[in-house]
């Protein structure tokens, strides 16, 4: 964990393999981690660096982990083609959802009503309480990441064909697509106000996109050319 102002290291937590995902609880007291050890861990940031709870169940490396349902549950997805729901107090698995392709990313909507899951060439949307599927849209590429707009009118996604896609959430129709990255897109997220979305790619760049192109927004200025990834990040970006 790093101090956002000074850049100094505040705390560290040792794992035996690559950590793929981390997520703070709402009160920032707990940190959940998911790694290639196939384990989920919860750390109490006010105590020692030892995990207070360890979750066993996934049979392959973990892709994504998040607190949700007001921190009453934890949701995770992994290379074993499952999404699992956990009790953060006991570490017990509560529910398991199986997919035909690896679920590569999770997002919980800001009002915590919808869980967005990217898997294969689909983006599916699930009721966060009942865990029933409410919508699914097919995407013209293997999709790695997706983000639902705060008003639930649209979602954006990206994947292996280097493009960013925008879809109508209700009809599932493609609104538009853009190609700016030079590598597969691994993460996309809307800004809290929904006016922008950010994408991170294997090309080492982080890019900002305007939700409504041409709309006046702060100091936003449209440009004709997309810059070269040279001299920017030298490693792929997998989370934002």
TrEMBL record:
One Pfam family from the record: WD40
Gene Ontology MF terms in the entry: kinase activity; RNA binding
SUPFAM superfamilies (alphabetical): WD40 repeat-like
Keyword Iron (UniProt): no
Keywords linked to the UniProt accession: Kinase, mRNA processing, mRNA splicing, Receptor, Repeat, Transferase, WD repeat
Keyword Repeat assigned: yes
Xref: InterPro entries: WD40/YVTN_repeat-like_dom_sf, WD40_PAC1, WD40_repeat_dom_sf, WD40_rpt
Gene3D superfamilies named in the record: YVTN repeat-like/Quinoprotein amine dehydrogenase
GO biological process, one term: spliceosomal snRNP assembly
WD repeats: 12-53, 55-96, 178-210
Lineage top rank: taxon: Eukaryota
GO cellular component: SMN complex
PANTHER family assigned to the protein according to its UniProt record, in alphabetical order: EUKARYOTIC TRANSLATION INITIATION FACTOR 3 SUBUNIT I, SERINE-THREONINE KINASE RECEPTOR-ASSOCIATED PROTEIN
Family indicated by similarity: Belongs to the WD repeat STRAP family.
Protein known as: Serine-threonine kinase receptor-associated protein
Protein source organism: Aphis craccivora
């Amino acid at each position: 964990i790093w101090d956002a102002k000074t850049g100094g290291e505040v705390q560290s937590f040792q794992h035996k393999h690559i950590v793929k995902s981390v997520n703070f609880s709402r009160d920032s007291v707990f940190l959940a981690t998911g790694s290639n050890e196939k384990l989920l861990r919860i750390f109490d940031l006010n105590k020692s660096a030892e995990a207070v709870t360890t979750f066993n169940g996934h049979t392959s490396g973990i892709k994504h982990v998040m607190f949700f349902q007001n921190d009453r549950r934890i949701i995770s997805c992994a290379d074993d083609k499952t999404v699992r729901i956990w009790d953060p107090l006991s570490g017990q698995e509560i529910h398991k959802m199986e997919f035909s392709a690896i679920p590569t990313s999770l997002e919980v909507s800001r009002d915590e009503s919808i869980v967005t899951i990217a898997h294969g060439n689909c983006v599916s949307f699930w009721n966060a309480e009942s865990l029933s599927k409410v919508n699914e849209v097919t995407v013209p590429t293997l999709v790695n990441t997706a983000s639902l707009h705060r008003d639930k009118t649209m979602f954006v996604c990206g994947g292996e064909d280097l493009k960013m896609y925008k879809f109508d959430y209700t009809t599932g129709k493609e609104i538009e697509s853009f190609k700016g990255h030079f590598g597969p897109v691994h993460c996309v997220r809307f800004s809290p106000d929904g006016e922008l979305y950010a994408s991170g790619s294997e090309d080492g760049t982080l890019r900002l996109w305007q939700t409504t192109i041409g709309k006046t927004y702060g100091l936003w200025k449209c440009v004709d050319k997309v810059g070269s990834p040279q001299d920017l990040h030298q490693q792929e970006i997998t989370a934002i």
